[in-house]
Every structure is written in structure tokens, then in C-alpha cells.
Amino acid sequence: MTLQATALMHVDDERVVVTEWRFAPGAETGHHVHTRPYVVVPLTDGTLGIGGSDVTLCAGQAYARPAGVAHNVINTGTNEFRFVEIELKGMLP
């Protein structure tokens, strides 16, 4: 059985969805496709398997991706990994 990452939604309004993700070692999101552009802000340092490659992320170093990105995210490290994901629903003023 696959260990699943946990999601805690903080905001879901007309402009954004803000979700905190927590990954125990070995936990994953499962394969999914983003339907909106999004920004990820790591809350901890760690290594995630994304799209078949291990990527080292550092707390506070945000990155952005466009809609249509398909992948599974797996915590390949030995400690819990957390990040905040901000999905953009539309143009911001």
C-alpha cells in the first residue's frame, strides 16, 4: 500500500487555492495534473522525487509552474517534508 501525502487547505476563494502539503518519508501525492498555474513554497529542506528525478528543495525558495504539469511527488528523503502550494484561479489585479 502506498503512503499518501496529506493536504490541509488554508484558502479557497475566487482568486487562489492555498494548500499545505505534508510528506512523511516515502509518502506521495499520486499521479495528477495541475489545471491551474501554481507556486510552491517549501517550508522545510528536503529531497522530492518529481517526474522520475530527485530534486533538492530548500525552505523559502519558491518556484512556479504552468497549468498542465503532470507528475507524482514522492518524499525520497528521510525526514518529513512540507510545502505550501498556491494555485492561481485567474488574473490578479
Describe this structure in words.
The protein has 93 residues and is mainly beta. The chain is 0% helix and 52% strand. It has strands at residues 6-12, 16-23, 32-33, 38-42, 46-50, 53-57, 63-65, 70-71, 73-75, 81-88. The chain has a 5-stranded antiparallel β-sheet, with no helix packed on it. The protein has a 3-stranded antiparallel β-sheet with strand order 6-5-9, with no helix packed on it. The radius of gyration is 13 Å and the shape is globular. The mean pLDDT is 94.
Average pLDDT number: 94
Structural class: mainly beta
Distinct helical segment count: 0
Proportion of helical residues = under 10%
Strand content: over 45%
Name the helix and strand elements from N-terminus to C-terminus, one letter apiece.
EEEEEEEEEE
- Give the number of DSSP strands: 10
List unreliable stretches of 5+ residues.
none
Shape: globular
Terminal residue distance: 44 Å
In the sheet with the most strands, the strands line up as 1-2-10-4-7
Layout of secondary structure:
Layout: E1 6-12, E2 16-23, E3 32-33, E4 38-42, E5 46-50, E6 53-57, E7 63-65, E8 70-71, E9 73-75, E10 81-88
Antiparallel strand pairs: 1-2, 2-10, 3-8, 4-7, 4-10, 5-6, 5-9
